[in-house]
Amino acid sequence: MGVPLMWLTRRQDLRLRVLAGRGGLGRDVVWAHSIELADPAPWLTGGELVLTTGLRLTSDAAACEDYVGRLVKAGVGAVGFGVGLSHEQVPQALIDRAEEAGLPLLEVPLPTPFVAVTKVVMERLAQQQYEGVVQASRIQPRMTRAALRGGAQAVVRELAVSTRTSVVFLDHESKVRAAHPPGVAAPGAAVLAGLGIAEQTTAAVSSSQDGVTAVQQVRVGPRVHGRLVVVAERALTPVDHLLLGHAASLVALEAEKPLSLRDEQNRVNALFLRLLLEGTLAAPLARDHLTEAGFPVRDGIRVLALRGSGPRQSLQLVGEEMAERGLPLFGRGHGGGTAVLLPAGHATTAQTVTDGARAGLRSPLWAGLSAVHDLSDGPVALAEALNAASVAQARGSLAVVPFESLAGRMLTATPETRKILATLAETLLAPLAAHDTAHGTDLLHSLRAFLEHNGQWEAASVALGVHRHTLRSRIERVRSLLGADLDSAHVRAELLLASSAWQEPGGSNPTG
Length: 512
Fold this sequence. Notes:
By secondary structure, this protein is an alpha+beta fold. It contains 16 helices and 17 strands. It has helices at residues 5-9, 61-74, 92-101, 114-163, 189-194, 238-256, 259-278, 283-292, 311-324, 347-361, 378-395, 415-439, 443-452, 457-464, 468-482, 489-501, and strands at residues 3-4, 17-20, 28-29, 31-34, 48-52, 78-82, 105-108, 166-171, 176-180, 203-208, 211-220, 223-232, 301-307, 331-334, 337-343, 366-369, 401-402. The protein has a 5-stranded mixed sheet with strand order 2-7-6-5-4.
């Protein structure tokens, strides 16, 4: 934080005149200091506007060169030379040396006292400090709201956007838990080592030719949860450091948040997801909520559907996998399985999340992934994911099945055909759904497996995990309820299309 020289020279009341170093007017000065020593360097810290009348400075070239050299070495921002006292005008040798060194040299006329220049600089610095406090007071509430809605990832995003820097949250093992911009790499091990041991260093700043790296410990009492690291191409301001400290506190609170509160947050996210997938949530509202939660939606969304395990345990494991990747969990149980929201650009995340959850469950888990959709098209994305998961289960595939890979997907990709198929499904499959509800049977799922395996008893029974005689008994019951000739290829094709489009009244797909 400093006073721009260009702004200072434009103050009409000071009547300053630029004599040399005009190319350096873009720099800031951090103080105005009146000093008449022949060698003022020992009393300077860098960035000052040095005010002098040249009382101990002669006009010869050697003296001026030595004087300018000492000031440049001390890192001063500029020199203000008062005329009319020790010198009637600024020595030409001083102007020449300052121009060669790129040091801004300002002529201060006799009617302008140095105290006036100093006062203007001090008032501007005070004003900037006040503006910084006001700015921080506006950003901190936004950061707090982000923490409440989206946890550590949302805080990191808000900090990065507000300070125009790159921010990474590293856990106690130096693993990246959240980052913004997305994909930004963590500082190298050597840089982190130079900033100190995570458990011992509360805060540190390191500067290099590539920029500035600042680190703030994230801890509550003796428990260290990690470090927030800010990387900038410029020097950090006091406001930046203030916001970094505030963000570290919020991330620490998030890490300490009781499990019951975290579960409550997940329940709120699950309610939000239900509304989104039912199509009852306006897209702008959904976009605002997801963005504040640190969930990227610019390129659209996908839905990941999981089958084969209880939703509660699956969601817990999926939530841990999502957190590993800096994403908040938006998931809920659906149709006996689990539905999870993913950003459009995270197709590969679907497989890693599924594999991680499967490893934790130590049981079969089948997954289907929808195509990319807008936020307004949640129901379609859900239907695609459920259908793809059903195919994955029928095939016994451990790989996530993308909806795009399914042949015939165009039949469910347009509103017109979806409406026709939905009507067909309601007409043909309602008796089976009613029977399953009343008697706790699984006729719909059994019929789907039978149809998808082209009536092959052995393959279909293996996919269902039942004996082929059990499957035969179920299919006979289906024949009886529907009065359909399942030996007819046309009938089987019609029923397969109907089962692909079938939706329960609550929006779930028992076959998906």
